[in-house]
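Researcher: I'd like a candidate sequence for this fold, 273 residues long. If you have to choose between options at a position, lean toward the conservative one.
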């Protein structure tokens, strides 16, 4: 997002935090669903996106337009948050869509946090991403835009039935829609990171040839926490192809100490002689 859009989103996000402090988890989840339904509407209606982000119209005019359209159709709390969102300045209609979708996601995460389930939701999102990544057939079925979204959503419901919390299922549905313009796998990764961020944590993606023991994982997490100055959620991927060692990615930082990397470096050095 550009600066004006970021500021507008920040104001709405602060309103969301104020609302969450005095609301039940179930009510916040309902508000989140309302906000995400409006995000879906904005995705389908480009003319509406343009009207609600038009810099030639006042913030009061844009919020009035939204209120006139949605009053009585979504909850009052969702409408209050959305009017705060659209009354700000937006650099592009696409950024208003991204901001609306992000606000809905943050509301879902806040509902899980209020219910004491946010850590589990983060874990379920990561594990589902691992399942999908490990099955090319499943990955193609969920990522293919030519497959109707309803069919993909039904498949997700079948896969998660009785195995994940409702908020996790809703978030996977957001990922199916290409959250923030990302691929399905990229959207899942971003949702894991947002879940961790709401718990004031950073995510470390660790690739190993064999699973780390609980003690090894805890020691690695402690070392990374000391480096980054905040708690770190360690997320392991087991890949025998790396042969040994550990690869760690935190944000844009990559620490690759795998045997495979060292072999590739040696091979490349020999090839240059």
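Model: Candidate sequence:
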């Amino acid at each position: 997002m550009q600066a004006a859009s970021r500021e507008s989103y920040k104001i709405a996000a602060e309103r969301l935090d104020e609302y969450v402090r005095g609301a039940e988890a179930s009510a916040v989840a309902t508000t989140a669903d309302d906000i995400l339904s409006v995000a879906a509407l904005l995705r389908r209606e480009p003319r509406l996106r343009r009207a609600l982000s038009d810099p030639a119209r006042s913030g009061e005019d844009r919020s009035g337009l939204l209120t006139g359209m949605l009053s009585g159709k979504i909850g009052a709390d969702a409408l209050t948050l959305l009017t705060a969102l659209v009354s700000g300045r937006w650099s592009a209609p696409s950024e208003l869509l991204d901001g609306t979708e992000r606000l809905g996601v943050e509301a879902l995460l806040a509902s899980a946090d209020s219910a004491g389930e946010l850590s589990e939701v983060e874990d379920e999102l990561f594990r589902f991403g691992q399942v999908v990544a490990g099955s090319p057939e499943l990955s193609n079925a969920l990522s293919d835009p030519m497959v109707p979204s309803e069919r993909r959503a039904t498949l997700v419901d079948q896969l998660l039935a009785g195995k994940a919390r409702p908020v996790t299922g809703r978030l996977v549905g957001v990922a199916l829609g290409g959250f923030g313009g990302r691929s399905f796998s990229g959207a899942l990764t971003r949702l894991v990171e947002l879940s961790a961020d709401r718990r004031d944590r950073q995510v470390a993606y660790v690739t190993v040839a064999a699973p780390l023991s609980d003690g090894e994982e805890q020691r690695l997490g402690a070392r990374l926490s000391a480096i980054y100055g905040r708690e770190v959620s360690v997320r392991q991927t087991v890949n025998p192809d790396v042969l040994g060692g550990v690869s760690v990615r935190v944000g844009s930082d990559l620490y690759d100490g795998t045997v495979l990397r060292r072999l590739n470096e040696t091979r490349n050095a020999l090839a240059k002689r």
